[in-house]
Amino acid sequence: MIMANANRPRNESLLEEAEELDERDTLARFRGRFYLPLNMIYLDGNSLGPLCFEAERAILAAVTAWKTQLIEGWTGGSSPWFTLAERLGGRVAALLGAEEKSVVVTGSTTTNLHQLLASLLPREPQPTIVADCSAFPSDLYALRSSVELRGLDPAYVLRLVAPGQNGLLQESALIEAMAGAQMVVLPAVVYTTGQMLNMGRLTEAAHDAGAIIGFDCAHSIGSVEHHLDQWGVDFAFWCSYKHLNGGPGATGGLYLNRRHWDIKPGLAGWFGSAKDKQMRMASIIEPAEGAGRLQIGTPNILSMAPLEGALDIVEEAGIRSIRRKSIELTDFMLRMFKSDPAFSAVRVITPEDPNQRGGHVTLQLSGASGLSQALRAHGVVPDYRPPDMVRLAPAPLFTSFKDCYQAIQKIAMLLEHPTDWQHLQPGLIP
Length: 430
Hints:
Order of helices and strands: HEHHEHEHHEHEHEHEEHHEEHEEEH
Number of domains: 2
Largest sheet: 7 strands, mixed
Strand content: 5-15%
CATH superfamily of the largest domain: Type I PLP-dependent aspartate aminotransferase-like (Major domain)
Strand order of the largest sheet: 2-8-7-6-5-3-4
């Protein structure tokens, strides 16, 4: 049985600080617009964001349009489905520092990466692709698959960079690996450690080496500020169900820099057509201008609808304010870890420098899977990543500083009684 934490002494100064920060929090008003279970501290929004009222209304509106308009829903009503991918892309572009036509909401993280590889990977006898060996597995699967489809051996094409001794990717090692490469694919925020890469510097280095570069923004979009056009990033891709709160399996998106707008889609499909020509049903595609040409099949309207609503709340809050509070939340958590002796045997692997830190903090320890399960039993939902990491993501739109304080108090209590949880194992979805 896992012990209660009623007798654990409180750090009154940090508790008072948390309460003061909550009183000054300009984003606190958004918490009440999310469906959050009572007596739960949800720190897993970097895996799946909760449902907000705006997303729910947008889903119901899409269902109503389907019910009442039928086929006319493609071109009629307040949100015609035929151009929904482009309209949502224009809104997401503002979060990425990109012009509207360079972004389209389509596909998923992995299918978009496949499309970008098929369209952008230079047609050389044996190109070299730089990536990091700890990238999200699906990215590595797509890279290897794309290489193998060309009849090439991934062992010779992929140049995978390992983290340094501190568990973090080293900028110098990434830049060194770019020599002679044709393409670079990296995470904007590393999904395990929470490390945020210097996208501007790495883009400059890739271009100096003669390579094009793209970023997986799944763990950064909606959490940090981006300036993709200004940095000159060639391409990017992401999902929408994490910090954008678009719902489980929500439609993803991709970015294509203007300099690549004339590329031929590697995986052509009819929704990549120019909108004014698409319904002519020509046997040869006439691609859309911008990122829209990389769409493939008919959009999944009911999976896009919640994102249409969820973006309302992100836009109202403002990405700059979201990022500012995210830094404050993770700063507060890091200071709590440092001040509590219960964490002396735990490694906090996330960088302290906010310029190198995304929206979550990662603890590395033996028995991480058991700790994750025990925390859920105590009303705190973290995220376990094998073999030894627990991720904590305080989301600025619905997480308070007092939530962070209480969650870390519970983690500390559990760390003081490891025999109560070290034997626990994660379920199918950890």
